[in-house]
UniProtKB/TrEMBL annotation:
Coiled coil spans: 308-368
Organism: Echeneis naucrates (Live sharksucker)
Protein name: Formin binding protein 1a
Record's compositionally biased regions (Basic and acidic residues): 118-143
Gene3D superfamilies given in the database record: 6.10.140.470, Arfaptin homology (AH) domain/BAR domain (1.20.1270.60), SH3 Domains (2.30.30.40)
Gene symbol of the encoding locus: fnbp1a
Location within or outside the cell: Cell membrane; Cytoplasm, Cell cortex; Cytoplasm, Cytoskeleton
Length: 512
């Protein structure tokens, strides 16, 4: 029973461990498909690690199930049988003990009766001898009594001898046959119990050894996944995703300050003539609020490379919608044909409104597809011309860029035409830009009610129960700007957090 309880608790521990491992794997596994999950090697490696960890949980569950079915259940059943057998042996022992005690009592009783009858016969003989000397009449009666007592003593003697022989026989059988057999059976039963415990321990070890190769294979797969990470490939893909497609600026022309003249810059610079006399007052900040739906339809506000990717994605989506509409149109046409051939199945004219709606949708989608294909061809030709002019091996140095960049509404860096060039020393200009970039002060704290995976640029991922600093309240669009530390800041859904503003902050209140 003690070992059965031990194995049961061991199985519960394995089952609890498997459940926690499975929950951990599920918690960090992406809730839905994301583009980077299939692009970056480290994301693929992490996904493979989570999958193998889930397989480890499966093996732990299988181990717990084997321990319960093969050991706990069998030992519990055997324990009941063992108790019943043990009870039978002890009952046999008690019956044998009661029999020998009963035989002993019968021997003691016959012995005391024989002793009593002998003493009575002896007293009767003395009385008979004394009466013979005094009177012959009374002597006859006394002799008769003495004879009766002697006969009773003789019978008691016979009973005593019989009881003594029976007891000796019973005692010999008790100590040499019955009790040794009972003890031998108990010993055999104990040996079988120990053998069963031995088998249970061996089965327990074999059950764990059975899952070890699979667990070892999972660990090997995790090692292979870690080795498959290619940092250079991932960084190149990041560059490919976020590259703007702009040509590097040309050389800055010499300006002669000895003569009053208008400064000029090369035609290939990011700035135009309208930037003169105006200072860009907006800071370069990686977590600007995104204005959804802003920008022209042809995405001219985006950098060339980002514009090309946006248009290409739009063309692909529109093509898929057109394919679905065409399939629906073909199905309606086929159904109308069936109705026309078999009017009892339905009215063919009832499909005309839907067919007309599908045709209008197809015309609209095809027109939209043509527009986007034209814009895409313009971007491709522009990028082709730019690449032909670009010098090989040219390196874009941040300190030599005479422009200010800002984030476009979709999170990419775009050209800013409102910045003014300042021909100071590059080192002092670099220091001034970063000296001005002080983080916004915290106006309170918030606690996440649900986990959130920030997939877009400018958002911040968080886990349930995490405490963050609030740096900007919700402006009515459902997003709150928060900060984890000095380096991690972004927007999270207001409905996913509980906000606690400082009493000194404007409009101090709690949002849920």
């Amino acid at each position: 029973e003690r070992y059965t309880k031990f194995v049961k608790e061991r199985a519960d521990i394995e089952l609890s461990y498997a459940k926690q491992i499975r929950n951990l794997s599920k918690k960090y596994h992406p809730k839905r498909s994301r583009e980077e999950e299939s692009r970056y090697t480290w994301c693929l490696a992490f996904a493979e690690t989570l999958r193998q960890l889930n397989e480890v949980a499966v093996q732990k569950e299988e181990l717990a199930e084997n321990l319960n079915t093969q050991i706990v259940c069998e030992l519990a059943r055997y324990t009941q049988e063992f108790k019943a057998e043990r009870k039978t042996h002890f009952q046999d022992g008690r019956r044998a003990q009661q029999h020998i005690e009963s035989s002993w009592k019968q021997l003691e009783s016959s012995k005391r009766r024989f002793e009593r009858d002998c003493k009575e016969a002896e007293r009767a003989q003395h009385v008979s001898d004394r009466i013979d000397l005094e009177s012959k009449t009374d002597g006859e009666k006394a002799r008769h009594t003495a004879q009766q007592k002697q006969q009773a003593a003789e019978e008691s003697r016979k009973d005593y001898v019989t009881s003594l022989n029976q007891f000796n026989q019973d005692q010999h059988q008790h100590y040499h046959t019955l009790i040794p057999v009972i003890y031998q059976r108990i010993q055999d039963m104990e040996e079988r119990r120990l053998d069963r415990i031995c088998d249970a321990m061996r089965l327990s070890a074999e059950a764990e050894r059975k899952v070890l190769p699979v667990v070892s294979g999972c660990l090997d797969a995790m090692m292979d996944a870690a080795e498959s990470i290619q940092p250079r490939m991932d960084t190149r893909q990041v560059v490919e995703v976020y590259k703007s497609g702009f040509d590097p600026p040309g050389d800055i022309e010499f300006e002669d300050y000895s003569a009053t003249m208008r400064r000029s810059i090369s035609e290939s610079s990011y700035l135009d003539n309208r930037a003169e006399g105006r200072r860009h007052g907006r800071k370069l900040w990686p977590f600007l609020r995104k204005n959804k739906g802003s920008g022209p339809a042809d995405c001219r506000h985006l950098p060339p490379e980002q514009r090309r990717k946006k248009l290409q994605s739009r063309v692909n989506n529109i093509s898929q919608e057109i394919q679905r509409e065409r399939e629906q149109r073909d199905a309606l046409l086929k159904m109308r044909e069936v109705y026309e051939q078999s009017p009892q199945m339905g009215d063919a004219s009832s499909l005309e409104p839907r067919l007309e709606e599908v045709k209008k949708s197809l015309n609209r989608l095809e027109e939209e597809l043509r527009r986007n294909q034209i814009w895409l061809s313009e971007v491709d030709s522009s990028l082709s011309d730019s690449s032909s002019r670009r010098q090989s091996g040219q390196i874009l140095t941040l300190l030599n860029l005479p422009v200010c960049l800002s984030l476009s509404p979709d999170g990419s860096y775009t050209e800013d035409h409102s910045a003014e060039l300042h021909f100071k020393s590059r080192s002092s200009e670099f220091d001034d830009d970063f000296d001005d970039e002080e983080p916004l002060p915290s106006i309170g704290t918030c606690k996440s009610l649900y986990p959130f995976q920030g997939q877009n640029e400018g958002t911040l991922s968080m886990v349930e129960g995490e405490v963050l600093s609030v740096v900007e309240e919700d402006k009515g669009d459902g997003w709150t700007r928060v900060r984890r530390n000095l380096e991690e800041e972004g927007y999270v859904p207001t409905s996913y957090i509980k906000v606690f503003l400082d009493s000194s902050a404007k409009g101090a209140m709690t949002y849920i």
